[in-house]
From TrEMBL:
<feature type="site" description="Transition state stabilizer">
    <location>
        <position position="359"/>
    </location>
</feature>
<feature type="site" description="Transition state stabilizer">
    <location>
        <position position="260"/>
    </location>
</feature>
<dbReference type="Pfam" id="PF01128">
    <property type="entry name" value="IspD"/>
</dbReference>
<keyword id="KW-0808">Transferase</keyword>
<feature type="binding site">
    <location>
        <position position="368"/>
    </location>
    <ligand>
        <name>4-CDP-2-C-methyl-D-erythritol 2-phosphate</name>
    </ligand>
</feature>
<dbReference type="GO" id="GO:0016114">
    <property type="term" value="P:terpenoid biosynthetic process"/>
</dbReference>
<feature type="domain" description="2-C-methyl-D-erythritol 2,4-cyclodiphosphate synthase">
    <location>
        <begin position="227"/>
        <end position="380"/>
    </location>
</feature>
<feature type="site" description="Transition state stabilizer">
    <location>
        <position position="17"/>
    </location>
</feature>
<comment type="pathway">
    <text>Isoprenoid biosynthesis; isopentenyl diphosphate biosynthesis via DXP pathway; isopentenyl diphosphate from 1-deoxy-D-xylulose 5-phosphate: step 2/6.</text>
</comment>
<dbReference type="InterPro" id="IPR003526">
    <property type="entry name" value="MECDP_synthase"/>
</dbReference>
<comment type="similarity">
    <text>Belongs to the IspD/TarI cytidylyltransferase family. IspD subfamily.</text>
</comment>
<feature type="region of interest" description="2-C-methyl-D-erythritol 4-phosphate cytidylyltransferase">
    <location>
        <begin position="1"/>
        <end position="227"/>
    </location>
</feature>
<comment type="pathway">
    <text>Isoprenoid biosynthesis; isopentenyl diphosphate biosynthesis via DXP pathway; isopentenyl diphosphate from 1-deoxy-D-xylulose 5-phosphate: step 4/6.</text>
</comment>
<feature type="site" description="Positions MEP for the nucleophilic attack">
    <location>
        <position position="150"/>
    </location>
</feature>
<feature type="region of interest" description="2-C-methyl-D-erythritol 2,4-cyclodiphosphate synthase">
    <location>
        <begin position="228"/>
        <end position="387"/>
    </location>
</feature>
<dbReference type="InterPro" id="IPR001228">
    <property type="entry name" value="IspD"/>
</dbReference>
<dbReference type="InterPro" id="IPR026596">
    <property type="entry name" value="IspD/F"/>
</dbReference>
Length: 387
């Protein structure tokens, strides 16, 4: 029987590199917020005293996760300050051991946690790690400057476990920042045992990490996938001007597209495709052209709104495809830039976005160069949540 152990879940950060503007720990993943998965993983490993460290702005969201085994603590301005606040809260009724875990690691396994706890029987600190297997370089100004030996190098993971009084004293003595709690422990002279990490114990940082995590959850739980397709179509006529906004790129031309907003016909079609997959109508429903505030608006506003709505519903973008129909301007030289622009706006990998063009063989209004048409398809997916 292991001695009592508490777990601190660090979730006070504001990281939004995964897109959507929502801190990653509060993003939807397989029908639930990330932190719900993280808390459940710790419970399944036998932990029943959990301390969730949050940003003050997230109290309402945290209340939705409240349970008898979860205490909520307000974090500080840095990770070190947040962990220290949680340790001080636990000190009022100190456990023998404490695990400190990243809230954005929702796939930690019971095996990884058990190995850390077992190591604490003979060590004052323990942490999971994976050996570095890739070649390492040092780079300077976009160039490879030198090869770096990977001998003896490991990738750190969490949870990192410690004898409680020892790590509390180490944090109280520490000044400044630290990469993790092992750094603080070692600065205090503590010896840290390494335990086996796991490749699936990923820290969610970018959209690709969310995509991978959703696939892993589906595989673990044997859930079906909810897959939705949406189509979008838009047209804008030419008028006076010297360039067209197409898929987020200003393409030089002897005319410009006319519209209530910036008339980005490709982005409008893609936005409608995402709305369509969600059964949410079209741009006009969410941004009425009769409303003067949208006159000349950047179409990124519309696309980001559709993507945010998609993620709030627990979906992710599997892929999308945009086809621009026009004789001129020529799209090919700008297609890569358009692909990159759309991917950046949606917070996804560029290889999930296709942009291409075709002509109408001089037929119809596009053939007469009166305007440009765009057709888009979007595929959204999520794992079917438990009911």
């Amino acid at each position: 029987m292991r001695e009592d152990c508490a777990a601190i879940i660090v979730a006070a950060g504001r990281g939004t590199r995964a897109g959507s503007g929502v801190p990653k720990q509060w993003r939807m993943l397989a029908g639930r917020v990330v932190l719900a998965h993280t808390l459940e993983a710790l419970r399944q490993a036998g932990l029943s005293r959990l301390v969730l460290v949050i940003h003050p702005e997230d109290m309402d969201k945290a209340q939705a996760l409240s349970a008898p085994d979860v205490a909520i603590v307000m974090g500080g301005g840095t990770r070190v300050e947040s962990v220290r606040a949680a340790l001080e809260a636990l000190a009022q009724d100190a456990p023998h051991h404490v695990l400190i875990h990243d809230g954005a690691r929702p796939l930690v396994s019971a095996r990884v946690i058990a190995d850390v706890r077992d190591a604490l029987v003979r060590a004052t600190g323990a942490a999971p790690a994976l050996p570095v297997v890739d070649a390492l370089w040092r780079g300077e100004e976009g160039q490879v400057a030198a090869a770096v030996s990977r001998a003896g190098l490991f990738r750190a993971q969490t949870p990192q476990g410690f004898e409680f009084n020892a790590i509390l004293a180490a944090h109280r003595a520490h000044r400044g920042e630290a990469a993790d709690d092992v750094e603080i422990a070692r600065a205090a002279g503590m010896e840290i045992a390494m335990t086996p990490g796991c490749e699936e114990n990923i820290k969610l940082t970018y959209q690709a990490d969310f995509d991978r995590a959703a696939r892993l959850i589906a595989q673990r739980q044997g859930h079906d996938m909810d897959i939705r397709l949406g189509n979008g179509y838009d047209v804008h006529r030419f008028g006076p001007g010297d360039g067209c906004w197409l898929c987020g790129v200003l393409v030089p031309h002897d005319r410009a597209l006319q519209g209530h907003s910036d008339a980005d016909v490709g982005m409008h079609a893609l936005t409608d495709a995402i709305y369509g997959a969600l059964a949410e109508g079209d741009i006009g429903r969410h941004f009425p052209p009769s409303d003067p505030q949208w006159k000349g608006a950047d179409s990124q506003i519309f696309l980001r709104h559709a993507v945010d709505l998609m993620r709030e519903r627990g979906y992710q973008l599997s892929n999308c495809d945009v086809t621009l129909v026009c004789e001129r301007p020529k799209i090919g030289p700008h297609a890569d830039a358009m692909q990159a622009a759309l991917a950046a706006i949606m917070g996804c990998a560029p290889d999930r976005v296709s942009v291409k063009a075709t002509t109408s063989e001089r037929l119809g209004f596009t053939g007469r160069e009166e305007g440009i048409a765009a057709i888009a398809t979007a595929c959204l997916s999520r794992t079917v949540p438990d009911v």
